[in-house]
Structure formats: structure tokens, C-alpha cells
Amino acid sequence: MARSDVQVAVIGGGAAGIGAARRLREAGLTALIVEARSRPGGRAWTVEAGSFPLDLGCGWLHSAERNPWTSIAEAQGRTIDRTPPPWSRASAQPGLSAAESGELRAALWALHERADALSESEPDRPLADLLERGGKWNALLDAVSGYYSGAALERVSARDLGRYGDDGVNWRIAQGYGATIVAHGAGLDFAFDSVATRIDHGGRRLRIETARGAIEADAAIVTLPSAIIAANEALFAPALPAKTRAAAGLPLGHDDKLFLSLADAEGFEPDTRVFGKLNSVATAGYQFRPLGRPMIECYFGGALAADLEAGGEAAFFDFARGELIGLYGGDFARRIAPLAFHGWGDDPFARGAYSYALPGRADDRAALAEPVENRLFFAGEACSRADYSTAHGAYLTGVAAAEQAIAALAPARAMG
Ligand SMILES: Cc1cc2nc3c(=O)[nH]c(=O)nc-3n(C[C@H](O)[C@H](O)[C@H](O)COP(=O)(O)OP(=O)(O)OC[C@H]3O[C@@H](n4cnc5c(N)ncnc54)[C@H](O)[C@@H]3O)c2cc1C
Predict the structure, then answer these.
(1) Cβ-Cβ contacts under 8 Å for 157 (sequence gap 6 or more)
(2) Angstrom distance (rounded) from CA 356 to CA 368
(3) Helix H segments across 249-390?
(4) Which helix (H) or strand (E) holds 236?
(5) What is the mean predicted confidence (pLDDT) over 178-197?
(6) Rounded to an integer, what is the distance from CA 60 to the centroid of its chain?
(7) Which of 320, 342, 364 is the last residue of a domain?
(8) By CB atoms within 10 Å of each CB, which of 192, 246, 347, 389 scores lowest?
(9) What span, in angstroms and rounded, lies between the C-alpha atoms of 1 and 82?
(10) For position 117, what pLDDT does the model report?
(11) Average pLDDT in the 195-210 region?
């Protein structure tokens, strides 16, 4: 039976799992993607709302010139939008002069430079330690850490941020990043609605137990979000405490998007961003007219996103409406309405948005990626040393894990 007996079981059908399974198929191996949801893509998810494709998960092709999804999207005939992102340009922030806007960007740049300068022989430390003491923009830098890492600077490893490889080129796919990733998985073999509850590596073959029956495989590529591996000590049998520990050092931060329709949108420049407040960590970022569309993309991060998740979409909308009224006056409320939202922290198959490393735990990425018994391989954004938290990082780790599985199975295949 093809579906219960395969050469490689790929656990999780997001960017990493799809990248891995495509590579395995090219190499002539049978691969089944075991996916808990009833849709592919995981944290890559484009939905149709207000007649537009909206990305509730990944939206930016970070490091776009070397990002493999750029050429995949082009090969799919999609439109790459090369407008520079709002965060790299002067802000249209009410109450902020051009000089202050420049100061803010310089303060953010300086923080990242200090993280980059941390040498590998120095002890790691929380990013908050690298803030300028009493710096004018510190609260806002912490809010931005919420958008970047999904957590406050105090919780994030400076070493890990220093290792992040950002080429500074950020593009978008007009038809959706999620849609591109999902299309790349077309024709692959998926078992949907199949929550993997146990990966038994005690026997001659691997046995993956799912809500829809067991699957036997010679090798497996585990691409589950780190938060899911950390929360489930019984996932592997026998247990793999080193994996559980490594995953726990790489929690998923909180980040959520809310899209609002915007009446009379022409009054705003396309692709401009403002913060709800300039002096508070608990503030959202508002991107006006993304890709020129009549809407606002509201971005919530860190503790603010975590707190609002308890109240669902209504809580996010109330918060955004309050901040936008604060910026543009009471009449503004009549111009906006909710279009699309997803709370990733509440999502049982994600448990957060993307991984950050706790202070002292940057090396957990390599520990999580380390193969076990040359037949259990690991991929997913949290396994990437320099492209973690991204869809291209996920893809690259998926392909790398597939290469490891191909090499591991080669002797048995050669024997026929
Ligand atoms: C709000 C938000 C904004 C983002 N913005 C960007 C961006 O602009 N650019 C960028 O590059 N990245 C961005 N990201 C991050 C990017 O989406 C992720 O890094 C990437 O999609 C992760 O891919 P993955 O394959 O590692 O994990 P996932 O996509 O999470 O795939 C793992 C899969 O495992 C499945 N699963 C979970 N538990 C089980 C189980 N027990 N059994 C079987 N299957 C299971 C899940 O359903 C999922 O499909 C964003 C994410 C969010 C949430």
C-alpha cells in the first residue's frame, strides 16, 4: 500500500516539507507528506479576501535576489513586485519629522550592527543589553523586535540575530507567497488531516503514528514547528531529549496580521507604514495600501499579539481601530472594516509565528537540525543558521534534509 509504506515520510507540509518532498521525488524516491491540516503550506497561507490574494503568513521574499522562491515564482509566471519595503523608506508618521524618522532607522541599524559585531568567542547576551542606555527610541525598538522576532529584546539572543543573513532586498509576489509555495507542492503525495502523534524509531523501519493510521518508512524528515517539538516529549519513541531541549531554546514568537479594507484610500501613499504610537512597546505597525490596494495591513508582534490572541479577531480590530483613531481622528473608524485575520499563537499546528533563539541558545539551531541514526532528518525554518524565521530558510533546510535522506538510502537502493 503506497500510502502506509514509503521510503521517506515527510512530517509537515509547509515550505520545508514541500521543498524536501520535491527533491526526493526528483531523486526517484517515494515520499509521503504527513500533514495535520486539511491544506498544504503551513505558515505560508494566501487567502482571497476583498478580491485580493492576501498573505496571512509569509509575505516578503527576504534576501530576494538569492531567495529560491523568487525564481520558483517567476517560473510559475507570477508577478514579482520590487517596490522597496516601507521599513526601508522615510515614514509618513504623523508627528514625526523626516529627521526623527531617520534617527529611528539609524537606531535600529546601530542595534543590528552591535549584534553583528558580537564575536563568536564572546558570551551571548539578550539583545536588550545592546540598546543605548536611555535611548530615545528604545520602546519603539522593542516594538520592532516584536515584529522581527515575535518577542521582546530581553528574550532574544544577540548572537542569533548577528548570524542572520539579511541581504536587504525584499520583494513580494503579487499573487501571494503562500499560493506560490502551495503550487510548488502540486502533484506531491499528501496525507491530510493526519496529525503525527508518535515517531517510533525503535524498530528496523520507522513507524509514524497518525490520527488516520500508521505509516512505515525507511527514513523521515521532520519539519514540525519547533514549538510543537518542544511541547511534545512523547513525539519520539524512544525519546530524544536533546531534540526536545534544542526545540525549547527556539520558541516561536507571536506575530499576527489583520487586513482592513480602507475607504478613500487614495489619500495615503501606497506602501507606507506608520506605528500606532511612538513611545510604547504595545503598538502595531500599519502598512497603508500594500501593493497599492485599498486596505491596511496591520502587524502585531510580541506580548501585544500574545495578549490580543485571547480575544480573537475582535480584540485585534478594536486595538487597531483605537490606534488609527488616535492618529487620524474619530471619523477614521468609518473608513475601515476587517477583511482577513489569523491568530498564529492559537493555531494548534503552529503555536506561534516564527522562531527566535533565547539568549545563550543560538547553537540550538544546529542541534535541532542534526540527523539521528542517519534516518531521522530535521528541517524547517528553526533549523536554519542564517535564514531562520523565513520561508526560504525553511525551503533550504528541506532540500538539505532531502539530500541527507537520499545519501542515507543510496546503499540500500544500490542493492536493489
Ligand atoms: C504573520 C507571519 C508573517 C510572516 N512573514 C514572513 C515573511 O514576510 N517572509 C518570510 O520569509 N517568512 C515569513 N514568515 C515565516 C514563514 O511563514 C515561515 O518561516 C515558514 O513558512 C515556515 O515553514 P516550515 O515548513 O518551517 O514550517 P510550517 O509552515 O509551519 O510547516 C510545518 C507543517 O507541519 C504541520 N504540522 C504541525 N503539527 C503536525 C503534526 N503533529 N503532524 C503533522 N503535521 C503537523 C503544520 O500544519 C505545517 O503545515 C511569517 C510567518 C507569519 C506567521
Answers:
(1) 124, 126, 127, 356, 357, 358, 359, 360, 361, 362
(2) 13
(3) 302-309, 312-328, 364-369
(4) strand 236-237
(5) 98
(6) 10
(7) 342
(8) 192
(9) 47
(10) 95
(11) 98
Please indicate, yes or no, if residue 314 is contained in any of the structural domains: yes
Pocket test for ligand 1, best of 37, 43, 226, 399 (most atoms within 8 A of CB): 43
Average predicted confidence (pLDDT) for the chain:
96
Within-domain flag for 298: yes
pLDDT for 383 equals: 98
What are the helix and strand counts (H, E) for the chain? 12, 18
Structure letter (DSSP) for residue 98: H
Mean predicted confidence (pLDDT) in 115-141: 95
pLDDT at 2 (0 to 100): 38
Which grid cell sits at 182? 502551495
Closest CA to 177 of 295, 343, 65, 42: 42
What is the DSSP secondary structure assignment for residue 137, as one 8-state letter?
T
- Which grid coordinates belong to 76? 510559475
Q: Are residues 262 and 162 in the same domain?
A: yes
List ligand 1's pocket residues with C-beta within 6 A: 11-17, 34-37, 42-44, 57-60, 62, 195-196, 223-225, 228, 255-257, 344, 349-350, 353-354, 380-381, 389-392, 394
Same domain, 268 and 326: yes
The average pLDDT across 91-100 equals 88
CATH code where residue 267 lies: 3.90.660
Assign 416 a pLDDT band (cuts: 50, 70, 90).
low
Residue 393 pLDDT > 50, yes or no?
Answer: yes
Q: Compute, in angstroms, the gap from residue 350 CA to the centroid of ligand 1.
A: 7
Q: What's the total number of domains in the chain? A: 2
The predicted-structure confidence for 268-289, as pLDDT tens digits, reads as follows 999 999 999 999 999 999 999 9
Write out the three cell numbers for 109.
541599524
List the grid coordinates of 321: 481601530
The ligand 1 atom at the shortest distance from the C-alpha of residue 344 is 53
Domain that holds residue 208: 5-42+179-250+356-414
Indicate which atom in ligand 1 lies nearest the CA of residue 389. Answer: 19
pLDDT tens figures, 36-46: 999 999 999 99
For residues 202-213, average pLDDT: 95
